[in-house]
Design brief:
With 192 residues, the chain is mainly β. The protein contains no helices and 12 strands.
Length: 192
């Protein structure tokens, strides 16, 4: 036992246990006797170990440098906010202490944009609704992949190029290119 401190923990029954120094009755058990083992604290009301329900309807929209998240909050009276955590890859953080903390919102928030992310990278988010204790609900998880900026990879060189001389013109043709971000080819005519 640490001689100068008191400790408390919330559990299901009784709702709070305390141990340590008790020279001023701070353990809440009606005595001033120190205790090295947890003792039940009496007379407390409104203590809960039950988290609010989880958030629902999580949606993500990714750009090249960020991910916008939106959700619906639970309706529990003791709901206090949403902790959002992020991990690289397809699986979101498993607990409110793993991954990277993105934000801990107010109870009125229903969206947040995580910015400054790498383009073309998969992230996964876990949204943990919580009360003021804090007791955390089961995570609502969602993966998101940031977009690759357009035009960062040049198109393949056209194949099957043919030309047919004509009166004061030349007809050019080539095999179709199937790249999804291809824009029209620019053809430069060079003098002889």
């Amino acid at each position: 036992m640490c001689p100068k401190r008191s400790r408390m923990i919330a559990t299901a029954s009784p709702p709070v246990w305390a141990w340590g120094v008790n020279n001023h009755g701070q353990l809440g058990n009606g005595t001033t006797t120190d205790s090295s083992t947890p003792v039940g604290v009496s007379g407390l009301t409104g203590i809960t170990t039950t988290p609010p329900g989880p958030v629902s309807g999580v949606a993500v929209t990714a750009t090249t440098s960020g991910v916008a998240l939106s959700w619906t909050n639970p309706t529990a009276a003791d709901f206090a906010g949403v902790m959002i955590r992020r991990a690289d890859g397809p699986k979101g953080p498993a607990s409110p202490t793993t991954g990277t903390l993105v934000t801990d919102t107010s109870p009125s928030a229903t969206s947040f944009t995580d910015i400054g992310l790498a383009a073309g990278t998969q992230y996964s988010y876990a949204l943990f609704a919580h009360d003021t204790v804090p007791n955390y609900a089961t995570a609502a998880s969602k993966p998101a992949t940031t977009a690759t900026p357009p035009g960062t990879i040049p198109p393949a060189t056209p194949t099957g190029l043919t030309f047919q001389p004509r009166d004061s013109a030349v007809k050019l043709s080539w095999n179709p290119n199937t790249e999804s971000d291809l824009t029209p080819f620019l053809i430069d005519l060079l003098p002889n």
